[in-house]
What does this fold into?
Amino acid sequence: MAQTLEMIFKTGQGRNFRITLDDPRFDLQPSEVKAFMDLVISVNPFDIEGGLVEIVGANIIDTEVQPLQLV
It folds into this structure.
């Protein structure tokens, strides 16, 4: 099963902006994610109109891939 970390921010334009990272550490703590998200907001490394201004939330998404048997 694959996992993805999804971090959701609010922009200065009131829109949601998502950053996803594949295969996060299995022992990742919410406080670490929040600290990173705060850092992203303070550095504002993306060219987004209005910038990133607020944390909306974060999710760990589990994905199970089931290959199809093509004949």
